[in-house]
Specification:
single chain; mainly alpha; Hyaluronidase domain-like; 5 helices; 0% strand; globular
Length: 141
């Protein structure tokens, strides 16, 4: 069980009846709360179950969340891989996919990739550059 919203890494969550907007917003909230596994689950359901118009960008958010999750589990290789994969997908959202500051996300990803090269443990990772994903007034779905 992950902290925060309580999604389980072993049980399949039931999102039946959830709107794309609800999934997206819960993903934002989970991500901002450091519940990266949960954020990935919400956004993955949005990506798979609702096939949003900005599918590639949402996939980038999913990969960003999983990269962050890997870093919280001292998995430098996994973090590097997912941060590398998410970058071109997040670029598809420039300048403000879903109202987010995509440039700030890309700056974080670039700094994370650079930082990972010199770390021996993800416990030393500097999270200070991770932007808060501000929820836009009306998320597109």
């Amino acid at each position: 069980m992950t902290e925060g919203t309580g999604l389980s890494a072993t049980a399949e969550p039931d999102f039946s009846g959830w709107s794309p907007t609800k999934l997206y917003r819960h993903g934002l909230s989970a991500f901002n709360g450091g519940d990266y596994y949960d954020a990935h689950e919400y956004w993955e359901e949005l990506w798979i179950g609702h096939r949003p118009w900005d599918r590639t960008f949402i996939q980038g958010l999913i990969q960003l969340a999983v990269g962050c999750f890997h870093m919280t589990n001292d998995n430098l290789k996994g973090g590097r891989g997912l941060f590398t994969k998410c970058r071109p997908k997040l670029e598809k959202g420039l300048p403000a996919g879903r109202g987010l500051d995509v440039s700030a996300l890309l700056t974080f990803v670039d700094a994370a990739l650079e930082q990972i090269e010199s770390l021996s443990s993800a416990g030393d990772f500097d999270w200070s550059g991770l932007p808060v994903l501000a929820e836009p007034e009306a998320a597109e779905s």
